[in-house]
Amino acid sequence: MDHGSAQQWLDRYVAAWLSYDPAEIGALFADDVSYRYHPYDEPIVGRTAVVASWLGADASGVASTRDEPGTYEATYAPVAVDGNVVVARGSTSYRRHPGGPVHQVYDNCFLIRFDDRGRCREFTEFYVLRPS
To answer: Measured between alpha carbons, how far is 6 from 118 in angstroms, rounded to an integer?
Structure first.
């Protein structure tokens, strides 16, 4: 993994989130991925489970909620790459309704481990609400 490959993966991550396309989401992750929305969560394990969680379609209680199209945007960039481990940071902005003013901004840090094919094997997200 290098900075360019990491940035391409992060761009695909944002595109998958914007589309909520199961194939795009699934293509990001290894079969045996461990995914955490928060560092203290038990991981969601397996590509199928991660896709279901992103789509808000699992019963685990840790599923993401689907954001309404046009109410969110994000940019992330790698800040450190060491072999197959990437640390990335960025921000995510939310609007109450499409085209409305931004009402929340989160600063994010991702800790990501990739497999030999450039698919995510481990993902942990850290985020904090930016003060207004």
So the answer is: 9
Query: What sign has the CA pseudo-torsion 49, 55, 57, 60?
Result: positive
Segment 18-33, tens digit of pLDDT: 999 999 999 999 999 9
Residue 128's CB: how many other CB atoms inside 10 A? 9
What is the tens place of the pLDDT at every residue in 65-121? Answer: 778 888 999 999 999 999 999 999 999 999 999 989 999 999 999 999 999 999 999
Burial (CB count within 10 angstroms: exposed 0-12, middle 13-18, buried 19+), residue 87:
middle
Phi-psi region of 61 (alpha: psi -120 to 50; beta: other; left: phi over 0): left
CATH for 3-129? 3.10.450.50
Please give the pLDDT value at position 30: 98
CA distances to 40, 56, 99 from 131, rounded to whole Å, are 23, 28, 22
Contact 113, 33 (CB under 8 A): no
First to last CA, the chain: 36
